[in-house]
């Protein structure tokens, strides 16, 4: 398994950066190769990607989510094996450090060669740069989900719907 770690500072408050990251269906707007993310419930998403002409579909599960601190996930179905965590640290009232760490198991010769050449590191770095541009350009989040998902499967009783008072759907 390969480990990737990248960090970027964004010029928005912590709450804004965190809230935007919880909008998983917006990921194709700033993540290269991600064609679609469909959230199936508070814990699960279905992903469709196309990288170097290879299409993949897989499902992820949020295993730990603490508002304004972190979102951790793992794959649970499909031909992609990965797990990771994105964490958020306030630098001051208007700036946030976003750190992404993930373990990925490359499959096939092409992916293993690309991994050896640092392609995954560069892709994650690029995705974070595009996230920075996306959130800074908009200046505010497109929504937010402030619920708590605890490791081990028990959600805390303070689980709340989206921040957006007009929203009734998922994240």
From TrEMBL:
Coiled-coil ranges (or none) = none
Q: Which Gene3D superfamilies match?
A: 3.30.530.20
The UniProt annotation puts the region (Disordered) at 139-171
Q: Which residues form the Coenzyme Q-binding protein COQ10 START domain?
A: 10-130
By its UniProt entry, which PANTHER family does this protein fall under?
A: POLYKETIDE CYCLASE/DEHYDRASE AND LIPID TRANSPORT SUPERFAMILY PROTEIN, POLYKETIDE CYCLASE_DEHYDRASE AND LIPID TRANSPORT SUPERFAMILY PROTEIN
Q: What is this protein called?
A: Coenzyme Q-binding protein COQ10 START domain-containing protein
Source organism (scientific name): Streptomyces venezuelae (strain ATCC 10712 / CBS 650.69 / DSM 40230 / JCM 4526 / NBRC 13096 / PD 04745)
